[in-house]
Amino acid sequence: MIVCKFGGSSLADAGQFKKVHDIVKANPDRHYVVPSAPGRRFANDEKVTDLLYSCQRAASAGADFSGILLRVQERYDAIIRDLGLKLSLSREFDTIARQIRDGAGSEYCASRGEYLNGILLAAYLGFDFVDAAGVVRFDKNGLLMEDETLRLLSDELKNHTRAVIPGFYGAEDDGTVRTFSRGGSDISGALVASSVNADVYENWTDVPGFCIADPRIVPDAKYIPSITYKELRELSYMGATVLHEDAVFPVRKCGIPTNIRSTNDPQHPGTMISVSAGLDSVQHTITGIAGQKGFSIVHIEKDMMNSELGFGRRVLQAFEEYAVNFEHLPTGIDTMSVVVRESELNRHRDEVIARIEELVHPDQINVADNIALIATVGRGMVRMFGTAARLFTAISSRGISIRTIDQGSSEISIIVGVDAADFNSAIEAIYDAFVRT
After folding, report:
1. pLDDT at 279 > cutoff 60
2. What burial class does residue 424 get, using C-beta atoms within 10 Å of its C-beta: 0-12 exposed, 13-18 middle, 19+ buried?
């Protein structure tokens, strides 16, 4: 059994709906479909969800929102007309307008894009429609009740051989609609796949999987055919954005593989994400490269710090007191470096430095700003001698100075810090060393 999730770009207009129809019907194992709201059809186009947010803001300000809502309705009517469906969403739009006039919140308004698209797609596919408000449960604080949701989904979907379940939203016990804060429909799709113990969770989007490096930096970057959830977590944490690891946690926990596919290139096998993958599936020593700018490194030096009990704890206490999270913690015998996001440090820079001085009395303390972190990730790195040397040589050959190094105990990633100005060049150097050679 396969569960499919289709993103907003995959359902932006009737042409995209037809592609989705053909994909679903091409494999009889595709039983359940989770749609997003219609996305942009072209550059500068508006997403349906953004228009619905605008309706709520206008109503809250006492302004007329009917014109904005009409644009949303016309968008759906155009898809229905172009698909030749005998379907009317007029009653649903009347209900939405009434709810907005009565003070419906932003989460209700935002969710209607997926709700309407679910009804439309179910009619087009000939599938049952299951309203996510009845099977995805949130508590009063807006937090997902995962166990309850999986139970509700499992019980309900036993009654539907094939169904469309809208993504992005659910509801509290009293019917108050709530939405996910991040990951949206990706999380919904993973929950549906987990609830039916699917063989595969297919996540269809506008790109055929993950690239080894950001194609904006390495235009000819190859796609990754196979990746583990652990590698995905390392890469997504460092900025890879095709799919956030949090959005597939339900399927990861159940051991269900996720296949990232492209609606516009359905013959491409995409990227398969699994709990474990053998080393025989590794094409290159590394799986991927990802990074982010905007970090600072706080360097602390003190003779004999290693013999001073609680030294590291007191340093971190200074950051904790001002709610500054640390990202990495490279250390030496007499040195300690704390890597933090520059934006967080800037809120309390002077106070944090003063507090460190007060707590540990360092011999020297200084801060390096405009640092970029780059993670090189790969399960194949474990079996290859000299991987780190190869990485550092590649970067130094471009005349780039490495400001910090951090290798986790998992041995599947090496993180280096470089000046932000050298970010693109360093990624290109790593790609050249491990993929092009």
Report:
1. no
2. middle
